[in-house]
Write a structure and sequence with these properties.
- This protein folds into two domains: 186 residues, Medium-chain alcohol dehydrogenases, catalytic domain (Quinone Oxidoreductase, Chain A, domain 1, Alpha-Beta Complex), CATH 3.90.180; 125 residues, 3-Layer(aba) Sandwich (Rossmann fold), CATH 3.40.50.
- It is 28% helix and 26% strand.
- α8 links the parallel β12 and β13.
- α3 crosses α4.
- The longest helix is centred in the last third of the chain and has 20 residues.
Length: 342
């Protein structure tokens, strides 16, 4: 392995965590520019996406894969600075899904995890694609096995994954695309993306009766659930025969009192999924499928990235605090581009 960059310094700026805790534990420090081996590239990072797992990792509540960088961040966009790949050359505009280290001026990535940025997208828009869109694609197509005509319930629908899932469900010709949130304004935005119906969840987390009214008692075929415990009982009450219920987050907790009879009677399957810890070949295949299926849809405007706010990376604490308010609609982005301006 080698660092082939012709730079005066092999040091870069990165975001670190002093100790598990709040956003005040984040700081900007120095790190060595990463090394690369065959079929890898070094990306000069222009923008990075902020994700819920970054907050959980900062808090010490997210198990980082053994080979992952201690530096936060799993998605970015930028320019190929150096390449030991046959797929990409220096100067190529790419976005990448990485196992860690994207909150940095430079990050190394396997070329299989990189995608060329469509000409009509900015670096900020591109940085909001890899983690949330590939996650949403995985959830709907590989885990939930979406079919034309499915009724789909999408919780936290105004999140990055939620906004992507709405559009992908529409692209797959789903029937009812039901979006939930606690914020009415967020749900109005979800309608512009393709949600056919929206439900504002109250403090008692009640939504099942409205879902069953919308579907005329037929329930939903797919549930995309990043909430977990607090929505568990209501989710059981909207399942139809052979519902595919995908839990991919635990924002509402992990402990539930489970009535197995309800699940058994309807043949409900509860499936769980994460992406970061998946093996190389799985992610390579997934990214390849996503690229072939969706990239031209970004180019022609069928699929749209949803960016809420862009923060200079020096304001990473503010970015994390903002995400924890749950006020964002779409992605929060860190901007690194000004670090490279003369």
């Amino acid at each position: 392995m080698k660092n082939t960059l012709n730079l005066l310094s092999s040091i870069m700026k990165s975001v670190f965590v002093k100790k598990p805790g709040g956003a005040e534990e984040l700081y900007i420090g120095s790190a060595n520019i990463p090394t690369i081996k065959s079929s890898e590239v070094i990306i000069k990072v222009m923008s990075s996406g902020v994700n819920r797992m970054d907050i959980m990792q900062r808090q010490g509540r997210y198990p980082v894969p053994p080979d992952a960088s201690e530096i936060l961040g799993v998605e970015c966009s930028g320019l190929v600075e150096e390449s030991l790949s046959e797929k990409f050359s220096k100067g190529d505009k790419v976005m990448a899904l990485v196992s860690g280290g994207a909150y940095s001026q430079y990050v190394a990535s396997p070329d299989a995890y990189c995608m060329k940025i469509p000409e009509n997208l900015t670096f900020e828009q591109a940085a909001g694609i890899p983690e949330v869109w590939i996650t949403a694609y995985q959830l709907l197509h590989l885990i939930a096995e979406i079919r034309e005509g499915d009724n789909i319930l999408i919780h936290a629908a105004a999140s990055g994954v939620g906004c992507a899932a709405i559009q992908l469900a529409k692209l797959s010709k789903a029937n009812h695309i039901i979006a939930t949130s606690r914020n009415f304004e967020k749900l109005e935005y979800c309608k512009t993306l393709g949600a056919t119906t929206t439900i504002t969840c109250d403090n008692e987390n009640k939504f099942a009766s409205k879902v069953n009214e919308i579907t005329q008692g037929n329930g939903v075929n797919i549930i995309l659930d990043p909430i977990g415990a607090t929505y568990f009982d209501e989710n059981q009450n909207v399942c139809t025969r052979d519902t595919r219920w995908v839990i991919y987050g635990l924002m509402g907790g992990s402990q539930v009192n489970l009535n197995i009879a309800k699940l058994l009677f309807k043949g409900t399957s509860i499936r769980t999924s994460t992406l970061r810890s998946r093996p190389y070949e799985y992610k390579r295949s997934l990214i390849d499928q996503f690229t072939k299926t969706c990239m031209k849809k970004f180019e022609d405007g069928t699929l749209k990235t949803s960016i809420d706010t862009v923060f200079p990376f020096e304001k990473v604490k503010e970015a994390h605090n903002y995400m924890e308010t749950n006020m964002n609609t779409g992605k929060i982005i860190l901007d690194f581009s000004h670090q490279f301006q003369n």
